[in-house]
Amino acid sequence: MKENAELTRQRLIAAARQVFLEHGVSRTTMEHIAVQAGATRGAIYWHFDNKIELFQAMREQVFLPLIDRMDDTLLVEGSEDPLTCIENFLCGTIQVLTDSIETREIYEIMMIKCEYVGEFASVLPQIMVNCSGIANKMQLAYERAQAQDQLHLSHDPAQLAVDTHLFFIGLLHMWVKDTNGDQFRCRAIELVKAHMRLRRR
């Protein structure tokens, strides 16, 4: 029974992703998603109270693995130097977008198919909390780099972390919009490496 319920839940999330992608979040209703999933109204409301809950569940499918990759890459004090750890995390995220259609579609929905107004304005504070968490973990890596004398003397780890985070968010936005792949997608890894080289002493 639990397995069937989870399968239905995942089918609803997948259906929401497809309808959000095609029509945009604001123009999508719970009924649209139920029809796409081949489910009843009762089934969709049994799993999700509203469209925001469905959106958040879809978002977690990419954000939770992102956090795991970030912890595994940025917080590991191993053989690789901290700046390489940051570079690997950024390049790894680009690679996931390249390899996973599902991840790519969810990023597209979050970045260009959703208006964070009205009921969805409540999503923004959580996004800001998540962004702060990413920047804080980058700062820890930059602080380790500073301790290893890898940064220019004028560089402040906190400022570098915010700068890298904003650079990468901007790159992701342009990567998602570059559907032909001939402007940013083809150069994303190169741009990340250039960004990180500027930090090295």
Q: What is the radius of gyration?
A: 19 Å
Note the gap between the termini.
58 Å
Per DSSP, the total helix count is: 9
Beta strands, count: 0
* CATH homolog superfamily of the largest domain: Tetracycline Repressor, domain 2
Number of domains: 2
Average pLDDT score: 92
What is the ordering of alpha helices and beta strands?
HHHHHHHHH
* Sheet having the most strands: none
Question: What's the shape?
Answer: elongated
| CATH fold group of the largest domain | Tetracycline Repressor, domain 2
Coarse structural class? mainly alpha
Please identify the top-level CATH class of the largest domain: Mainly Alpha
- Fraction of residues in β-strands: under 5%
Protein name: Transcriptional regulator, TetR family
Keywords: DNA-binding, Repressor, Transcription, Transcription regulation
GO molecular function: DNA binding
DNA-binding region: 29-48
